[in-house]
Structure formats: C-alpha cells, structure tokens
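Form 7-S
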Amino acid sequence: MRVRQREIPEPRANEVLVRVEWAGICGSDIDLRDGRRPPGFADYPVVPGHEGAGVVAGAGKEVDEALVGQAVVAEGVRPCGTCTACRAGNAPLCETVYDETGFTRDGAWADYLVVPAALVHTLPKNADLRSAAGIEPAACAAAAVERAHVTAGERVVVIGGGTIGLLATQLVRATGPSEVVVVEPADARWELAERCGATRVVTPDGGDLDASFDVVIEAAGVLGTAQAATRLARRGGRVVIVGIPPAEDVLMTQGIVAKRLEVRTVFGAPHRSWDVAVRAFRDGTIDPGLLVTHELPLEQADYALELVARRDPTVGKVLLRP
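Output:
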C-alpha cells in the first residue's frame, strides 16, 4: 500500500465530485490489503474506502448544481439498475458483475471521490461528518434489523460488540424491545454497549442466557458465533447473520429445522436500508460517532489498518482524515 499524489478526478455526466472529510476502516479493508477478498470482489490497484462522508465539490452534466456544497454520504454498490434484483430495490444482489466503491472502484481514502449522483444521500448543513462516516455500516445494521422484523416488546440478543453490532443495538433500541442483550467477550466494550442501548451485556459463555430470544442478530463473524445464534433463538424465532465467518465455519441444521427457525443473512445494504440509516442519523436515533476511538491523517493509513487488524478491544472505529 502506498500514499500517492494524484490529479483531482473529473465528474462525468450524472456524477458528483465529493471532497472527503472523514473515511472509515472496516475489517473488509484488511481483507482487501491481504488479498483475502473472494474472487471477483476486488480489482487491483484500487484506492480503498467504502465508508465516508464529505461535501459535494462539483457536479457533472445532468446533475442538479444545487447539490454543490451539500454534506453527503454515498452508497458503495454500483448497480446496473435494470436487472430483476435492482428493479426490486436489492442493489447488493445485482445480477451483473460486482462493482463497489473502495473495492473495484477508487474509494474514500482520498481527498476527492467521484460517485454517481443517484447514490448520494444529502445530510443537514450542520451534520457531524465525523459521525456520518459511520452511516455505511449503519445501513448494513439497518438491513439486519429490517430482515429480523423486530417489533416492540420482543427479546433481542446481538452477538458481537463491534461496529455493526453496536449500531444494530442502537437501531433495535428504537423499536421498543423488552430486552436487548449484547454478547461481547471484551469487557472494555461493555460500557459502550450499554450507552448504545443494551439492557444487559454478557460474555459468550454467560450461563444465564436461555434459548428463548425472539430475535438474534449475529454480528461477530467469529468461528462458532452463527451456531450460537441459532442456539439462543426460541422455537420459531428469527436469526439474522451479518458477520462473515471463516470458511471452515459450520451450522448444525438439525437444530434449525427442529426449532423451525427463520435464518436470514445480510451482505451489503439495499437503498431502503440506506434511507433508514440516514433518517436515523438525522433524527438522532443512531450516533456512529460514539464508536470512534482513533482519528488519523491519510498518510498514516498503513498504521490505521494495523490498529484494526490487531483486534484490540480498546480499538473501536478508526477514521482517516484526508
């Protein structure tokens, strides 16, 4: 990985130029650096960065000039817009070749970023862009909560006190559950989990968790956590798997069938989940800024990646500032 000086890109028709204010780092960026993305899910060389927030600095032809000066975030997946999945509003399931900012297109670890205007979401003029850089993972969390069909009064458990897990906890809190339990092995994250809305935080081997939760959201992606999610759900309960586990991970299907569980997954966020996350950010339902522990200049991107790769529980969301 290198930091290089480049020309400012020019937006083409139906594109905008965004001056990046803050950009986040995700575990998938570690996979990108280390060459562990699945075949077809990366195109090198590439500027990383699929989480970010900034201000529109220029507009191409056929774009409303009123967008210039607006604070924005932008969806990363670049769908074809015409296939069956896209017409149904499921851009992450686009039937054409995978294409996403920060993986196959130059991303937000730069001073400027060009994105399709159709993927931009505007924010209030006084928006905290440091916090807004976390709207992308919040959209994934919103997709998980939506797929879980969480309703008021239900008992919910979130496995994993990382970025997705704690943003999901914030969103679940707003639904009026009777209980929100966060399962997190590192006690360094417990206080933050409670600030995000957890009524209780327990370790994975906490003996007081019974298999009676209406909804289980798995957001850890660690070996065995998906199986633990199916164990904690009540009969007829709903399980949503957001974390991407190691290749050797397994699910014991006998218990899933015997308990008649609904098991769903999330990979990326459709447009409607972005809308939910942006509205939740606007009205204060979520505050991704709570999760930020480190802010570093773009020139220290290598060190920032190492911070994330260490999996130190005291390291939360790491941001880069061009």
